[in-house]
Each structure stands twice: as C-alpha cells, then as structure tokens.
Amino acid sequence: MDNFLRYFIADIGQLFYDFIDIFSAIFQFLFRLVNFPGRMEVIKANNSEFTTLDWIMLLIANLALVALIVIAVIFLIKLLRRLFRFRVPVKKYEELKNQVKQMQKDLIRANYEKDRLLAMRMEMIGGEAPGLDDEKEEKDIDSNRNTMETPPIDPMDSRFFRLTAVDNYFKSPEYAAPEYETDITLPEFCARFRLYAASQLHLYYDIRLLRHFVASFGAARIVILQGISGTGKTSLPYAFGKFVQNDSTVVSVQPAWRERTELYGYFNEFTKKYTETDFLKAIYEANFKKDPHLIILDEMNIARVEYYFAEMLSILEMPRQDEWKIDVVTATWDNDPVHIKGGKLQIPNTTWFIGTINNDDSTFAVADKVYDRAIPIDLDSRAAIFDEGTADPIYITADRLNELFDEAKATYRISDENMKKLEEMNEYLINNFKLAFGNRIMKQLKDYVPCYMACGGTELEGIDFMVAKKVLRKFESLSLGFMKDELTRFSSYLDKQFGKNTMAICKEYIDYLKKMN
After folding, report:
1. What whole-number distance in Å separates Cα of residue 93 and Cα of residue 276?
2. How many CB atoms are located within 10 Å of the residue 412 CB?
3. Residue 358, exposed/middle/buried by CB under 10 A (0-12, 13-18, 19+)?
4. Angle CA(30)–CA(31)–CA(37) in degrees, nearest 5?
5. Which of 222, 308, 324, 316 has its CA nearest to residue 264?
6. Among 241, 188, 213, 219, residue whose Cα is nearest residue 405
7. Which of 90, 172, 195, 457 is the most exposed place for a label (fewest CB within 10 A)?
C-alpha cells in the first residue's frame, strides 16, 4: 500500500498539481493584465533610454494586447450564448409539432377544396365536371362500401394526398366507365365538334381550323396555338374537352418557372409529403381513363419553355410509348398510388399537350427544339357567328381516335408526284436559303397530311399548312432584309411547282416575311 501511495503522489498527484497550475497561471495572467500600477512600474524601469521607435513599438504591443483581449471576450460571450441558448421545453415542443401537423392537414384539405371549387366553376361554365362530388372526400376516403380487392388508403396517411384520392374514386362503385361510340369517322368528328362548340358553348370556329387541330393529334403529342390575345387559343382545347366529355386541364404557366419541379412537384423532406401539381394529377388521372385528354399550358412562353418543359420534350421523343415515364420519386413506399411504379409515372397515349403562346414583348421566344417537336397553329381571327344546327357531346376512346389516325395514314398517303415536288423543294431551299427539311419534319408531314385529308381536307392544303408552319417559319432566323428578291422568286417557284395560288398559306407567310424587313 505504501508503494502505491508513493506512486500515486509521484504520478497522479503531480498531474493534479499541474492541472491546478493551469488555473493558477490563468489567475496570474488576469492579475498581471489588470495590475496597471505594476505594469507602469515595469515601463518606468525600462524607459530611461527609450527612443521614439521604442515608444512606437510599446504602443503597438499594448494595442495588440487590447485587441487580443477584446477578441477573447467576444469569443467567450458567443461560447456562453451557445451553451446557454434558449431551449424549448419538451411540452412546448410537442405542442408546436402538433400544430405543424395540423397545418399540414389544413393545407392538404385546402388543395382539395381548390380542386372541388374549380370543378364547380367548370360545371357552371358548361358541362358536368367528372370525378368530383360534393361529399367525395368523406365518401371515398373514410367509407368501406367499395368493392376493391384491397381497401382504400386514407389520403391523409399517404405522401400523395391528391393522387391517392384519385385512386379511391376510380376504385369505388361511384365510378363507371361510359359507353363509347365506335362508328364515328374523322369528318363527322370535326363537323360535330364545330356544331357542338357553336350551339352549346357559343364558340365559333372555321371548319379548316378544326381539321388542322384534330389532324395535329395524329402527327405529334404537342400542339402550339399562337396568335394575338382574344382569338380563342385557350377556349379551343377547352371546348374539345367538353365535346369528348373529359374536361381539359388548364395549367397556368408562371414567369418564375425554370425547372421540372414546377410541373411535376417535389417531395418535401420536412413534411414527408409530396407537393402535387395540377399537371401531375392530370397525367396520373389519365391513366385510369380511356378518353382523350388535353393538358393546356396556358401562356407557356411567359417563362422559357425549354427550361421547365425540357424533360417532357425528351420523354416524348422516345420511340416506344412504354418508355414515356416521368421520374417522380427516388424511393417507393408501400402506400404510394397504384400508378406510381418504381417511382415513375407512365404518360398514357390518351394525353396530348396544348401550349398557348402570345407573341409580344412580355414573353420569351420559343426555341426551335420546341417548335420542331410540335405542330404550331396560328389563331389570328375569329370565325363569323353561324347557326347550322346543334350537336351533342360524344364519348370516344383515345384508342379509337388513334385507330382513325392509323387508318388515315394507311389510306391517304402523300402521292408520289407531290413527294417528288417536296424533294425538289428541299433541294431548292438548300441551294438558295441553306435550309432543309429535317427527318423529324418530314415524318410529321407524312403523318399529318393523311390525317388532315381524312378529316375532310385536301392533300395540297395539308402540304401547304405544314410547309408554312414547319419550314418557312425557320426563315425568320435569316437576314431577310437582303433576301426580298429571293423570297419573291420562291413565291413564283411555289406557283410553278404546285399550281398558281395553290399554296395560299405559304404565299401569305412569304408576304409577311417580306414586310417584316
């Protein structure tokens, strides 16, 4: 025991004394720091032979010491604040957490109420809003009267509130698929659409415009309606949704949109909920229906289209329709909506995207990559009011509409004579304007013209429209001020190639280009 005590005093005891010396040294430091009389005595004992430089160095040394002390005090105060900062008591923290959860529920219910009010407004404008009922939330979510193989999921328990509510509606006995018409033709479809819009909605359209609009669905998934304000760019796809009894979804583009989350939403790591957009909900709901559905991007160029819509442009370029999938979430949960598979959502072949464009100083120019993938249609004037009878809305499946387009492409092929003329025109444009038909434009032309002919138009009208909208539009990027003579010769070339005044849309567009400069 004595040996251990000697060891303890020699080793552990010495460590203890050294530890005490730390505080002793700090005390001595502070005592010397504030012992101004003692420090003055030291200065007096050494300043008898100080030069000017020595006094300057003395001043600098003391200023540095003061600065060091101030920094140390500030650091100590911050350290103490961090150590003793205000902490919420456990009880108060639980109350705040419950309030946040309640606010999340209120926000989700507010989104639902917005959908219901929008549906009621659409119903007041004309037609019945499908898929929403005054008591839908309570009936679909909380009742057990459905006949699903699996019970419905309470949307409040899912990170996808709105999509889960859609699941519950379409799995419930309340939903029944309509009886679809199967014997309608494309000319009848266009004619009935025109009469329905005029008699039921008081919207008047020229039959050629409707042929262009409907035929575009057979050539592309994106249609751009452009023109001055008030010509019916939004009302046309709206009327189409009413006609097929599957309301179009209107998505108002905002100037601040710059990325994909503006369209598809995002998962909030804090709330553990997915912020769902009208765009995402529309695509998801289209997976349950067979009806053609239009999603309207209203004033799509009020923000840069190639920023927020870039992913969709790439997806729709995929050769197979089963590759048209949106990445929604990276990880899957057991109670995710039924059509979110592997974190991805399928874009069904029932969906088309309609962009409306105002060409003015408040908007951005639309990039070629957008125009090349779309069918642009100009709406520059309103049709005269007419009364030619009435027509009822129809039920038609998107598959039937696509079948009509496929039949048209097999029946109304572009003639060999006109294909040869188009090839010669391509050579002419290359030699004189350094422009050419791209493969994508040629494919769209071969798809569009037969569909337009099947809708009741002529072959040359379809060619005229596509050449003007898809090829001549590229002339705007050229220095037209030095090309008026070339444009005049090209107008004469069109008359010689296709017949005098046959290519009316192209010639009108050439005159417009000449006036621009």
Report:
1. 29
2. 18
3. middle
4. 125
5. 308
6. 219
7. 90
pTM for this one?
0.71
Tokens of 354: 């309609």
CA dihedral over 259, 260, 263, 265, signed as positive or negative: negative
Rounded to whole angstroms, the Cα distance separating 450 from 96 reads: 64
Q: Is 8 helix (H, G, I), strand (E, B) or coil?
A: helix
Q: What is the pLDDT of residues 375-430, one digit of tens each?
A: 999 998 888 898 989 999 999 999 999 999 999 999 999 999 999 999 999 999 99
137-161 in b/e form (b: 16+ CB < 10 A) is bebbbeeeebeeeeebbebeebbbb
Cα separation, 376 vs 370, whole angstroms: 10
In tens, the pLDDT along 12-57 reads 777 777 778 887 887 777 777 777 787 777 777 777 777 888 778 8
Look up residue 467 and give its two tokens.
């050449």
Distance CA 458, CA 465 (A): 11
3-state DSSP call for residue 27?
helix
CA–CA distance from 163 to each of 103, 154, 458 (Å)?
20, 11, 44
Sheet with strand 249-252: strands edge to edge: 249-252, 293-298, 351-357, 222-226, 374-378
**Helix or strand holding residue 103 (H, E):** helix 90-125
The ranges of the chain with pLDDT < 70 are: 1-2, 4-5, 7-8, 83-94, 97-98, 100-102, 104-151, 479-482, 517
d(CA 441, CA 452): 16
What tokens appear for 358 in the block? 């105002």
Q: Are 192 and 391 in contact (CB under 8 A)?
A: yes
Q: Are strands 273-275 and 266-268 parallel, antiparallel or unpaired?
A: antiparallel
Rounded Cα–Cα distance for residues 165 and 115 (Å): 12
How far, in Å, CA of 463 to CA of 446, rounded? 9
Q: How many CB atoms lie within 10 A of CB 184?
A: 15
Contact between 212 and 227 under an 8 Å Cβ cutoff? The reply is: no
